[in-house]
Amino acid sequence: MNRGSNRLRYSKSRQQKARESCFNMEYELTIRQQETLDKFGARIADIRKPDWDDHYLTKWLVARNFDLAKSEEMLRNSMKYREKMRVDDMMEEFDEPEVLQKYLVGGMCGYDKDGLPIRIEPFGDLDMKGIMRSVKKSDLEKVAIKNCEMLMKECKYQSKLKEKRIDGFTLIFDMANFSRKMLWKPGLNVYMHNAEILQNNYPEMQKRMFIINSPKLFPILWKIAQPILSEESKKKIKVLDKNYKEELLKYIDEDQLPAYLGGTMTGPDGDPKCSHKICHGGDVPKAYYIDESTQTKSMDKASVAPGNELKIECEVASPGSVLSWRFKTEDKDIGFGVNLKADGEAKDRELLPTARVDSHILEQDGILVCEKAGKYYLIFDNSYSWTSSKKLYYTIDVFADDDGFDLETDPVTG
């Protein structure tokens, strides 16, 4: 395979370890890792796109520590995910709810000294409970994807402008005003889930992350976040002390950093927070909360007794059909999963492992493209509770592949 100018530099010393510096846009590979890269390119040749050069493929290898099988699985899963989510059309088709535009914190603001776009997230001002009471789970997931796509678009623009490769961003994670309410588990679960989207579908995109104004409770949050962070991601995180402004200015010019963080950039009328670019959140007005009585009025209802589970059978006649669901519960959570008994198969097959979901906080929704005909079972599990029944509201539909169903919803997610 002739890669010409796309071929990466690599070390001739077998002892030299592969590394990507947070301050260097190029990779240095050992001979063994270059061989792995060559094999990787051959294995994904059937899906490889013209602009996937060696640098791009190396990012997937780095994300899985140069494990060839895991890297291939990660890339192929990402392609399936993009197809289900219709990522390529999302920027034009997805109408972001007003409450997220006004209260979901974060935004792009300026560029660092390497030309990387900067994203600033005032996490301590996030009212996750209010947001989750105002939108669907799929809305939050789509916004996470949209933000990543916007960052990629900005990187391509900067690459042309600076005439060098720019394919990542710098994140400033501001924890000022952080309080115990931010440790609300359902909210953290959703936030971490969206963070995993970045790791699993946009590898090596976050080049460095500065955490500022970390509270005394930070070790607890760090412990919660560690399981989803790869070793490479952890290396790129710097927790700065109270002199963070001086440290940020080592990497970011004053005119590219908002004034409230130590720079000179301001918004209209001298706004030091640059609120025209960065959403600073705040308490979500209750007027945005979804009216649950209206929301559940047209849904089917059921009660799942303590120690029991409810299995709802859906007959799928033809492969390619789409199974769609929405559900929520009152007061407490419930377990949810999907099994299949395919035509000609003796045993049920687990498609979506049963796991507890915060359906009492946030309406759960998802779809499954049915690869086989057969009986699909949606499982609502209350076996872990021996005292409380669960009141369930749900809507389940099956769309045949010729029904013209538009796959503009999110994929299977628990």
Task: Describe, in short, the structure shown.
This protein is 30% helix and 21% strand.
Question: Can you characterise this structure?
Answer:
The protein is of the alpha+beta class. The chain is built from twelve helices and 13 strands. Strands 1-2-3-4-5 form a five-stranded mixed β-sheet. Strands 6-13-8-11 form a four-stranded antiparallel β-sheet, with no helix packed on it. The longest helix has 26 residues, at 137-162. It is globular. The two termini are 41 Å apart. Residues 1-25 and 402-414 have low confidence and may be disordered.
Given as residue ranges, the uncertain stretches (5+ residues, pLDDT < 50) are 1-25, 402-414
The gyration radius over C-alpha positions equals 23 Å
Question: Biggest sheet, open or closed, and with what strands and sense?
Answer: 5 strands, mixed
Mean pLDDT: 85
N-end to C-end Cα span: 41 Å
The total of beta strands comes to: 13
